[in-house]
Specification:
The protein has 282 residues and is of the alpha/beta class. The strands form 2 sheets. Strands 3, 4, 5, 6, 7, 8, 9, 10 and 11 form a 9-stranded mixed beta sheet that branches. The chain has a two-stranded antiparallel sheet with strand order 1-2. The chain is globular and about 65 Å long. It comes from Halomonas alkaliantarctica.
Length: 282
């Protein structure tokens, strides 16, 4: 029961808090069962180069809840992180992503595609994370060179030396790294120099107002220039229109992802999209 204590020491029940707690507990219960019930699927959002050609995709998890329907990762990923369930869920994502890579590798038209997978901080910090990735790659037969792990700055909290060592171990396998939601964290510049990253991903919050916000224009331009001077590939997420793409392209951003090119779609549709003629920058 949700007991709240008022300033004068009286205790009372708040039905709203109570209802929220119950909803959360029930969602957590369902989340525990979701893997064995096979309720998760991956969808894919294409990533394109400056000519609009599909060069890869990001895998994004979806949860088809038996009663509530589709539950957004924005809702259940934080809950999964709080409860530790992100570890088995994240492992499922890695496994499914590796299987997808193998399917793509077996087709002439898709064998060049890379796949980016989101990895939560808690998942990355598991002592056996490197072994797990290694086992998934071996079991599936996927090429590590096509697998990209997206980390966020929250992963860098804690023993940074350990994290860097772990990244090096994975890089030795051929895996690459992207720093997701770049610009929204706090430690960017200090760590950027030390981390063995391959790519930074400009957060969509800077990209979505590019056509009307001069501050965001300046920020985006600076991030791209910094990426260039540090030898990092720069990708922009949340590219929603031609103006966004044009501005990013003018500043030599390397890769692009967003609704302008493609919404997250099923694996089958992703293949069809990658075969379609590229979107032109006109
Ligand atoms: P993210 O990794 O930053 O992914 C980008 C999000 O922006 C995705 O939302 C994507 O659908 C959305 N998006 C893509 N293009 C556009 C656009 O042009 N405009 C706008 N407004 N949005 C766009 P989604 O799929 O709901 O995922 C939300 C977040 O959930 C992800 O943010 C990521 O942090 C997390 N997530 C998703 N899948 C996984 C997963 O497998 N594991 C973990 N740990 N986290 C995941
Ligand atoms: Mg991501
Ligand atoms: Mg992101
Ligand atoms: Mg984001």
């Amino acid at each position: 029961l949700a007991k709240l204590t008022s300033p004068n020491g009286l205790r009372f029940y708040d039905p709203a808090v109570q209802a929220e707690l119950e909803a959360r507990t029930s969602l957590e219960h369902d989340l525990r069962l979701a893997i064995e019930r096979q309720e998760f699927v991956l969808v894919y959002q294409s990533q394109v180069d400056s000519l609009g050609r599909t060069i890869g995709a990001e895998a994004l998890i979806r949860w088809e809840h038996p009663r509530n329907g589709f539950v957004s990762p924005g809702t259940f990923i934080p809950l999964a992180e709080e409860t530790g369930l992100i570890v088995p869920i994240g492992n499922w994502v890695l496994e499914a992503a590796c299987e997808q890579l193998v399917a793509w590798a077996n087709d002439e038209h898709t064998k060049h595609l890379t796949l980016a997978v989101n990895v939560s901080a808690i998942q990355f910090q598991q002592p056996d994370f490197v072994d797990t990735v290694c086992a998934m790659l071996t079991k599936s037969g996927a090429s590590a060179h096509r697998l990209k792990l997206e980390l966020t700055e929250s992963t860098m909290i804690g023993k940074v030396d350990n994290i860097i060592a772990r990244m090096h171990q994975l890089k030795a396998l051929g895996v690459s790294f992207s720093l997701d939601d770049f610009g929204t964290g706090y430690s960017s510049l200090q760590y950027l120099k030390r981390l063995p990253l391959d790519q930074i991903k400009i957060d969509q919050s800077f990209v979505c107002k590019l056509h009307r916000d001069t501050d965001d224009k300046a920020i985006v331009q600076t991030i791209i220039a910094m990426g260039h001077s540090l030898g990092l590939q720069v990708i922009a997420e949340g590219v929603e229109n031609l103006e966004h793409w044009r501005y990013l392209n003018e500043h030599q951003c390397h890769a692009y992802q967003g609704y302008y090119f493609c919404k997250p779609v099923s694996a089958t549709e992703m293949v069809l999209r990658s075969l379609a003629p590229p979107r032109m920058l006109t």
